[in-house]
Amino acid sequence: EKIRLMAVVELSFTRPAHHRVLEFSEISSLCSLPLNQVEILVMRALSLGLIKGTIDEVDSKVYVSWVQPRVLSRQQVGDIVNRIGEWKSSVDQMLTLLQNQAAQGV
C-alpha cells in the first residue's frame, strides 16, 4: 500500500500546480490496481495528508490542490526550476501586455 500511495503522490507532483487532475484510469494503471479500488487508495492518501483535493466520482477524476513536500531528486529540482522559469515568462508577458494597454489608455 505504501508504494501505491507514494505512486499517487509522485503522479500528483509531476503535474503543473495549476492542473493537477488525475484520472482514475491513470492511477489504476500506474498502481496495478482495479478501477474499483482507486477511490479507496485516493481516500487513504487524502486521510494521511499526503495530498489535498477532491474526488469527482462521476468523471472518475481526482483534483489535487496540494502535495506533501518531500526530498527531491536532482531531476525533480530541475523540473521545478523549469516550471518557475515558465511561470516567470508568463508573468513577464502579462506585465508587458498590461503596460502596453496602460500606455494606450485602455
Task: Provide structural commentary.
The chain is an alpha+beta fold and 106 residues long. Helices cover 60% and strands 15% of the residues. A hairpin with a 4-residue loop joins strand 2 and strand 3 (61-67). Helix 1 (2-13) packs across helix 3 (35-47) and helix 2 (24-31) crosses helix 3 (35-47). The relative contact order is 0.13. The mean pLDDT is 92.
Summarize this structure briefly:
With 106 residues, this protein is an alpha+beta fold.
Q: Which value, in Å, is the CA radius of gyration? A: 18 Å
Biggest sheet descriptor: 3 strands, antiparallel
Head-to-tail CA distance between termini? 56 Å
Strand order of the largest sheet: 1-3-2
**Which consecutive residue ranges, at least 5 long each, have pLDDT under 50?**
none
Summarize model confidence as the mean pLDDT. 92
**Which percent range fits the helix content?**
55-70%
Number of strands: 3
- The succession of helices and strands, N to C, reads HEHHEEH
The outline comes out as: elongated
Q: Helix tally?
A: 4
Structural class by SSE content: alpha+beta
Which band does the percent of strand residues land in?
A: 15-25%
